[in-house]
Amino acid sequence: MLFSIGPAVTTFVRGSSFNVETASASQAFEFDLGECPPGPYWLITQGQPPGSPQGLPGMPPPLPSIPIWIRASSAETVDAAYRVSQAISQQEEYRNRPIGEKSNSNAKSYKIYFVLEGCRLDYSQPIEGGYVYSMGFGTGVESHSAIINKVLTGVTFPIGEATCQIYEQAHPIIVVAFNDIRAEGPDEAVRIVRGRVDLICGVLALDRSSAPKPIAVIRMSPLGQLDVAFFVSPYYGNMLSGFVAGQVTESLDRFVRAAEIDPWIGLVLGMYVDAIAEKNNLFRVVKLWSLLESCAKRRDWPGFPKKDSKGFYSLKLGRLFGKDLAKVCHYLCSEIGFSDNNFSSKVGFIDIVTCCYRVRNVGAHEGVIDPQGHAPETQEALRFVFEEGGLRILTNWAEAALRKEQVRALGGTA
After folding, report:
1. Residues contacting 373, CB < 8 A, separation 6+
2. φ, ψ of residue 65 in degrees (nearest 5)
3. Contact 176, 197 (CB under 8 A)
4. Are 390 and 322 in contact (CB under 8 A)?
5. Do the beta carbons of residue 131 and residue 177 sit within 8 Å?
6. pLDDT (tens digit, 9 = 90+) per residue, 214-228?
7. Whole-angstrom distance, CA of residue 214 vs CA of residue 207
8. Residue 2: per-residue pLDDT
9. Bridge partners of 19?
10. pLDDT over threshold 50, residue 36
11. H/E element holding 47?
12. CB of 110 within 8 A of CB of 28?
């Protein structure tokens, strides 16, 4: 990857090896180029990669790195200096490209820095309009230490240096920086790129096998004024107390024992936690439905109806198209006990299940709601799920399924 102009341009043949002197010592190390594809590269010596944003106070300056061009063969003639310069120019334009309301005459230019915890990067990565780069350190254990020392009155536990280092290494910090966000105000600037940051987190989770999460965002105005906002997730859980709130020791104990007997209980319980934590309601529907499907597909009903020539399954409450939908409906009806009697006369059980399934398909197959692009019945399903209580009903079904499977795992009946 190229990040900025370096002190020299050198060409090497693919598969060859070479020596390079580090920035901090005279010792030479040999690097094998191996199967690197031909093209421009930076040989990063040590420290912060070149080109990382310098807009924030206190950031260390980059150490010098050597731009190289890897050739395909020794017979290939390469104007390395020109090609590297050209690639750098193209990338410079790419990472400084404006994002947002570029045609709005009232828009101003903001710099936005999202601080993420939980992902390690070896070197900076250019993205459209900015960079993703590592800060070279992680969050400390100090806040947890303060909590621990409040657990027992009058007792202070010293936190050793080794523990601090291990904790910091386990919570690395990276920054997603955008150089030129065009918006009328700082809140709008953050909103414009927040979706991109969520996608970047997803890609990093896929590529780095770790899931970074935003912990703060720094905004820099056109006049250089800085402010910071922390991402604090509100508490959506039960605010009641006592038995009515579900604070029952027996329930905790039973789920633990059920998961020990059947580890699958831990899987679906984790699916439920993931669904409840999901901020995108469309994706929450997908995750809750996946939980119900997982429960339903575990059951084998000898009398489950066969599909007809048109792909429909005839259940007691009506005909449903598709085996997955039919099995979930049959599971909720025969195993959990839901039916038309649980709902008002205006909305029947089959109607609610079908609405949830349609919305699940929108999320699973399209990933976004198009106000104008869905069939009338899908529009009606979206309205019911997100505006008329359907999501709450789906959540209740998932909770009931979890409790049913916990009882089943312990050898009881529900």
Report:
1. none
2. -130, 155
3. yes
4. no
5. yes
6. 889 999 999 989 999
7. 17
8. 33
9. 30
10. yes
11. none
12. no
Return the bridge partners of 250, or none: none
Give the whole-angstrom CA distance, residue 190 versus residue 112: 7
* Residue listed under structure tokens 């104008």: 372
CA distance 295 to 267: 11
Residues 130-147: pLDDT tens digits?
Answer: 888 888 888 877 777 777
What letter represents residue 2's amino acid?
L
What three-state secondary structure class fits 75? coil
Instruction: Return the bridge partners of 226, or none.
Output: 220
Q: How many residues does the chain have?
A: 414
Residue spans of alpha helices (H) in 226-280: 249-261, 264-277
Q: 17 forms bridges with which residues in the sheet?
A: 32
Q: Are strands 108-117 and 213-220 parallel, antiparallel or unpaired?
A: antiparallel
Residue whose pair of structure tokens reads 């290494």 in the numeric block: 169
Both tokens of 267, joined, read: 């899987």
Tokens representing residue 134 in the block: 């590592």
Q: What is the CA radius of gyration of the chain?
A: 28
Mark out the alpha helices in 337-414 (DSSP H runs).
349-365, 376-387, 390-409
Domain map of the chain by residue range? 10-94, 99-230, 243-409
Tell me the one-letter amino acid at 380: E
Cα–Cα distance for residue pair 138/133, rounded to 1 Å = 13
Q: Give the up-direction half-sphere exposure of residue 69: CA atoms within 13 A in the CB hemisphere.
A: 20
Contact 40, 84 (CB under 8 A): yes
What's the pLDDT at 49?
42
Helix (H, G, I), strand (E, B) or coil at 370: coil
Angle at 282 (CA atoms; ends 112, 313), nearest 5 degrees: 160
* DSSP-derived secondary structure for 138-185: E--SHHHHHHHHHHSTT--PPPPHHHHHHHHHHSEEEEEEEEEEEESS
pTM: 0.59
Say how far apart CA 176 and CA 157 lie, in whole Å.
36
Q: Quick one: tokens of 4?
A: 């900025």
Query: What share of the chain has pLDDT > 90, as a percent?
Result: 16
Q: Rounded to an integer, what distance in angstroms lies between the CA atom of residue 332 and that of residue 339?
A: 8
